[in-house]
Amino acid sequence: MTAGTPKPQVDTSRPHPARVYDYLLGGKDNYTVDQEIGKKLPDASKQDARLNRAFMHRAAAWVAHSGIDQFLDIGTGIPTEPNLHQIVQGIAPASRIVYTDNDPIVLRHAEALLISTPEGVTDYIQADVRRPREILDHARGVLDFGRPIALSLIALMHFIPDEDDPYGITRILVDALPAGSLFLFSHGTADFQPDNVVGHVNDTYGKGGISLRLRTRAEVERFFDGLDMVDPGLVTAPRWYKDTAAPEDEHSSFYVGVARV
Ligand SMILES: C[S@@+](CC[C@H](N)C(=O)[O-])C[C@H]1O[C@@H](n2cnc3c(N)ncnc32)[C@H](O)[C@@H]1O
Prior knowledge:
The protein contains nine helices and eight strands. The protein has helices spanning 17-24, 32-40, 44-65, 84-91, 104-108, 132-140, 166-175, 195-207, 217-221; strands at 70-74, 96-101, 121-126, 150-154, 182-188, 228-229, 235-236, 254-260. Strands 1, 2, 3, 4, 5, 6, 7 and 8 form an eight-stranded mixed β-sheet that branches. Helix 1 packs across helix 2 (32-40) and helix 3 (44-65) runs parallel beside helix 4 (84-91). Bound molecules: S-adenosylmethionine. S-adenosylmethionine binds next to helix 1 and helix 3. S-adenosylmethionine binds at residues 17-18, 21, 52-53, 56, 75-77, 101-103, 106, 128-130, 154-156, 159.
């Protein structure tokens, strides 16, 4: 977005996933329609959002320490400090980051994502993950696809229904990455909740016009087909940690994992 560009229109008449998540994280960039959904969700949803975000922080830091300095983050969300670029550029200041989201409210707040270190680059495009080749075409202008890249799809794919082929989309993105790249992933699951709670969560999102497709462990594992999982493998959000102290092992309805390409 450049100076003088009109601000993107934000539709406040219907809820959006980015704004519901912002509400769950305690942010201020959400509207009554989003708050209504957030208030109907189980109390644990706020903890789920926080633990998912904390996984992103730990995984991004670990990737940066491992020497990768290029990031393609799709489904970025409304800026919430620390954002991915702040974490990785704090470790490797020359890191280059391409952010992508399809929600106009994220574009509206993109300035916060674009404050890069002088040595590095941050870039934002508004795009739908269901058109992965467009995202890759854009990213090729910013990132060097001859060197390893970290692709992150964090808390995104449960908004992509089966009919939109989430596995095929992921395959296109992962196949475009050079050898030595890393894939960071998290996904909501119904595995640990009673059917009535899951039904209520699905109804709550569905009535707001948001499609939610929570997936089982086996369904989440399929996103990693053909990749080498990094220890500790596919685990719930607080159980993924590396060289940091173990976070408190709270209940989480998110599977998370990192894999080598
Ligand atoms: C739950 S938030 C996750 C934000 C961030 N990745 C994190 O984990 O903290 C999901 C994000 O995915 C975005 N999103 C949903 N469907 C999308 C799509 N089809 N294409 C791109 N982004 C999408 C939403 O706008 C929202 O910002």
